[in-house]
Write a structure and sequence with these properties.
The protein is an alpha/beta fold and about 190 residues long. A 5-stranded mixed β-sheet has the order 2-1-3-4-5. Helix 3 links the parallel strand 1 and strand 2.
Length: about 190
């Protein structure tokens, strides 16, 4: 616990320094009005990996909602968040951005469940009730991007939202749009 406390204290110290240069952002109403006038905003769905930070690879002035989860997967919760943001920000597009060397390629569904049950045996029923964790093989990297693009495109609640897929190379920082998005339309 002491190690966590010292890390939290370091974060709070960093926050104190951050506030010295903080500029008050626009209000939610101001942001909503700007998105309506601008024809709709962009939402980014990406991984929670600390190497995959859109504000770095798309530029420090990026002002768009970012949804982050393990693997940047188009989970039910991601669809819920996109739906909320679409209502708030008049979102016109979602960019699905996965990255190379993703942690989700270093584990399996089975290993995650086994680890969770070992750490918290009393949660076995909850762990068993969890659907897919979204693990995938490194060789399936581009396919999983297109899978998630397709999942979002087929979501009726996201009808009218443009969905596009991108791959970010963690070694070079280069983001590439996957051009052949036709397979996303099909059920993978």
């Amino acid at each position: 616990m002491g190690d966590v406390d010292s890390k939290v204290q370091a974060l709070l110290k960093n926050n104190h320094a951050f506030t010295e240069t903080w500029h008050k952002p626009p209000t939610m109403e101001q942001m909503r009005a700007a998105q309506v006038q601008g024809g709709g905003g962009i939402i980014i769905l990406t991984c929670l990996d600390p190497r995959c930070i859109p504000e770095q690879f798309f530029g420090p002035l990026l002002r768009t909602p970012v949804i982050r989860n393990a693997g940047g997967r188009a989970s039910k919760d991601a669809v819920t968040s996109i739906t909320v943001l679409r209502s708030l920000m008049n979102a016109a597009a979602v960019l699905v951005v996965h990255h190379t060397d993703c942690g989700m390629t270093h584990v399996t569904e089975e290993s995650l469940r086994k680890d969770a049950k070992t750490r918290t045996p009393e949660a076995e029923a909850e762990i068993d009730a969890t659907g897919s964790y979204g693990c995938f093989e490194a060789d399936d990297f581009e396919r999983t991007i297109m899978e998630d693009v397709g999942t979002l495109q087929r979501s009726k609640v996201l009808a009218g939202v443009e969905i596009r897929g991108f791959a970010m190379d963690t070694e070079t920082g280069v983001v590439t749009e996957l051009k052949d998005q036709s397979m996303a339309q099909e059920k993978l």
